[in-house]
Design brief:
The complex is a heterodimer of chains A (379) and B (290). With 379 residues, chain A is of the alpha+beta class. Chain A is built from 13 helices and 17 strands. Chain A folds into three domains: 22-92, Dna Ligase, domain 1; 98-222, 2-Layer Sandwich (D-amino Acid Aminotransferase, Chain A, domain 1); 232-378, 3-Layer(aba) Sandwich (Rossmann fold), CATH 3.40.50.261. Chain A has helices at 5-14, 28-38, 65-75, 125-131, 149-157, 163-182, 219-222, 232-239, 258-270, 287-298, 317-330, 346-355, 364-378; strands at 23-25, 42-47, 59-62, 79-80, 83-84, 87-92, 98-107, 112-118, 136-140, 185-195, 201-203, 207-210, 243-246, 251-255, 277-280, 305-312, 337-343. In chain A, the strands form five sheets. In chain A, strands 7, 8, 9, 10, 11 and 12 form a six-stranded antiparallel sheet that branches. A four-stranded antiparallel sheet of chain A has the order 1-6-2-3, with helices on one face. In chain A, helix 2 (28-38) packs antiparallel against helix 3 and helix 5 (149-157) packs across helix 6 (163-182). The two termini of chain A are 36 Å apart. The mean pLDDT of chain A is 93. In chain B, helix 7 (216-227) runs parallel beside helix 9. Chain B is built from ten helices and 14 strands. Chain B has two domains: 11-121, Rossmann fold; 127-289, 3-Layer(aba) Sandwich (Rossmann fold), CATH 3.40.50. The model of chain B has no long low-confidence stretch (mean pLDDT 94). The chains are: A alpha+beta (379), B alpha/beta (290).
Chain lengths: 379, 290
């Protein structure tokens, strides 16, 4: 789960990480008031779940409250990578002597949280990683013990010469690790970590991604979710326990299992179509899930035809068939539906469908070729 | 004549009286799997379906029955603890089906599993099946499998079934099918399975089903190139998946790649792995190489 910068700042601040005062605004006048309170020049930063905000024009310097009002008015409502900016963060403009990078991620390969630290921080850190990977120092932390003080110190010596700054940075690394663990994060990042001309070490930015699997037992973290920052269809799918990603094509897909769902999208493309979505109804299906899935997909006006691709293992194909029949009774589905199902309770599923004049195919390629053709005819 | 499960498998089911555990225990029994024990704390002394003795702890179950493999169907919040309990009882083969375990739990669990020298498969996986020995450890539907000499390893669940189904319908049986799981931290990776299949006298060829994300498939391709003499064919799901609205830079920095399908397919190609563009291509690609 992605959270906003201002929320991540609060989580880091709770661990004691030093940062500049600031506040979040939903309207230009709120931004103006915050700028007036802070005094001096401020930075207005779009709060949106997308990278590259600065390069998209979502981060601006304002010399005073008046400019803060103007810039906030421009940034609020702006589209960045298809997402609308609903909030801005207003923080004092810091004088910067140096920019470093601090990242902590759960790494598949070492199976541990890995620190990544670089003295070459800032917006081009990915380029640094690609072109001069030696400038990024990594350290895998044993989660049984956590980050040892000497490890933090050694990483910090790689950033600064001044010993006071080294100690400050080491402390921030320990606090970042604490924030990572306390909030069930899969990623925690400060970019940039800056030094100011008067020698302070400060976090100027904060990013945290929370492991979705933590939310089940950490409802407090779930409260950080900002549904207005998501695609409405994706938020609706999540509430219905469906895994859904909206795409740009016209072939709606309802599939059980993430791997099969991706393979189905690939096959739609293979046969010359464009998938309208990724949708995984999960293992244990119920007719309600199918109804919700059809509601979400049919709400997309671009969808010209819908494919069900169900391989029954734990999923009972008759549950899916009953869901399709119930959905078409509840609301009119205006586009053609192609159903492929095979596996658990297949005979009963086919009987249920046949009763209402629907049929099912048993082969995935046949079904995908058919739905692509129907979508083309309807376009 | 298989890997990880065979006629000597004596299976323990952790969470046998739960909703998922009981359903799948029945499926495994029906298939012919030798289930020797179940564990549900507080229900020791009962019998599951009048057949399988239930114990309070894994250690009790192992002592009484000599279970040498365990399959875990306990809820996400206690699943990592169940893995640790099985490893502490020195069960050499631990298969965890549970989906939704926090990744930090797994990060803390894996060093312990390794310290005990046992194998973990999963979590968030469909388990494995050896059709020739009627040994099913997990949730892969038995009726779509057939005994034979092709080994299959996959990160997916239902996509595995799709490919296995194509194999069986074409008359190509399987030595063992293993689902390694889709989570960021898993106990057994592609290379572990490739090594086992390479050493298994009952396997003539290997099917690998990967997904976008991470670098496990690329590492596996490198392993195939240098260490596997048997024919390998592969599929990568997610060739058309959109690039995520990625936050932060750490993911790309750590792997040096974004784990795209193109990168993985290129690695397959360079390793001489037969590329399946569609699941059904598994037949043609295998026949070309066998």
């Amino acid at each position: 789960m992605n959270i906003h910068e201002y929320q991540a700042r609060a989580l880091l601040k709770a661990q004691g990480i030093p940062m500049l005062d600031g506040d979040v605004a939903s309207t230009p006048t709120e931004a103006e008031a915050i700028a007036r309170r802070l005094g001096g020049a401020v930075v207005i930063k779009a709060q949106v779940h997308a990278g590259g905000r600065g390069k998209a024009g979502g981060v601006r310097l304002a010399r005073g409250p008046g400019e803060a009002l103007d810039h906030a008015a421009e940034i609020l409502g702006m589209q960045i990578k298809g997402l609308t900016v609903q909030k801005v963060l207003v923080v004092p403009a810091a004088e910067i002597a140096s920019e470093s990078y601090l990242g902590l991620i759960m790494d598949r390969e070492t199976q541990r949280p890995v620190f990544m630290v670089s003295a070459a921080g800032g917006v081009d850190i990915e380029e640094v990683a690609q072109q001069t990977p030696e400038k990024i120092v990594r350290l895998a932390v044993d989660p049984t013990y956590g980050l040892f003080p000497h490890q933090a110190l050694r990483l910090a010596f790689g950033l600064y010469r001044d010993f006071a700054q080294v100690k400050a940075a080491a402390r921030i690394m320990e606090q970042l690790y604490a924030a990572f663990v306390a909030n069930g994060a899969s990623l925690a990042e400060i970019n940039p970590l800056v030094t100011t001309p008067d020698g302070r070490v400060l976090a100027l930015d904060a990013k945290i991604v929370i492991d979705d699997n933590e939310l089940f037992w950490r409802p407090d973290l779930g409260l950080l979710r900002d549904e207005t920052a998501e695609q409405p269809s994706e938020a609706a799918a999540r509430r219905a326990n469906l895994s859904f990603i909206k795409l740009d094509g016209d072939v709606g897909c309802v599939v059980n299992g993430a791997g099969l769902a991706m393979a189905t999208m690939d096959l739609v493309k293979y046969y010359g179509g464009e998938p309208a979505n990724f949708l995984d109804i999960g293992g244990s299906s119920s007719p309600e899930k199918v109804i919700n899935a059809l509601k979400i997909i049919t709400a997309d006006p671009h969808v010209k035809a819908i494919l069900f691709n169900i391989f029954g293992g734990i999923t009972r194909t008759d549950d899916v068939a009953n869901g399709i029949v119930a959905a078409t009774r509840q609301f009119k589905v205006k586009v053609p539906i192609v159903i492929r199902l095979t596996g658990t309770n297949e005979a009963e599923a086919i009987r249920v469908l046949n009763e209402v004049g629907m049929t099912a195919l048993s082969d995935m390629d046949d079904a995908v070729a058919r739905v692509v053709q129907l979508a083309k005819e309807a376009a | 004549m298989s890997i990880f499960a065979d006629a000597s498998t004596r299976l323990l089911v952790q969470g046998i009286t739960g909703r998922e555990g009981s359903f799948h225990a029945r499926q495994m029994l029906e298939y012919g799997t030798n289930i020797v024990a179940g564990v549900t704390p507080g229900k020791g002394g009962q019998r599951f379906d009048d057949k399988v003795p239930v114990f309070d702890t894994v250690a009790d179950a192992v002592e009484a029955t000599g279970a040498n493999t365990t399959v875990i169907y306990v809820p996400p919040m206690s699943a990592a603890a169940a893995i640790v309990e099985a490893a502490d009882a020195a069960i050499p083969m631990i298969v965890c089906i549970t989906e939704g375990i926090p990744v930090m739990h797994m990060s803390r669990t894996m060093p312990f599993v390794r310290s005990r020298g046992v194998r973990l498969i999963g979590p968030n996986c469909p388990g494995l099946i050896t059709p020739g020995a009627r040994a099913k450890v997990g949730i892969i539907p038995g009726n779509i499998c057939a005994p034979g000499r092709v080994g299959l390893v996959s990160r997916s669940g239902t996509l595995t079934y799709e490919v296995v189904n194509h194999l069986t319908r074409a008359g190509i049986g399987q030595s063992t099918c293993v689902g390694i799981g889709g989570d960021p931290i898993i106990g057994t990776n592609f290379i572990d399975c490739l090594r086992a299949f390479q050493e298994d006298a009952g396997t003539d060829a290997i099917v690998m089903i990967g997904e976008i994300g991470g670098t496990d498939e690329q590492n596996a391709a490198q392993f195939v190139k240098t260490r596997v003499t048997k024919p390998v064919v592969g599929f990568i799901a997610g060739q058309t998946a959109p690039k995520g609205r990625r936050m932060g830079h750490a993911g790309a920095i750590i792997s040096g790649s974004s784990g795209t399908a193109e990168e993985k397919l290129a690695a397959f190609e360079a390793a001489g792995i037969g590329i399946m563009r569609r699941p059904v291509d598994v037949i043609e690609q295998l026949r070309k190489r066998m």
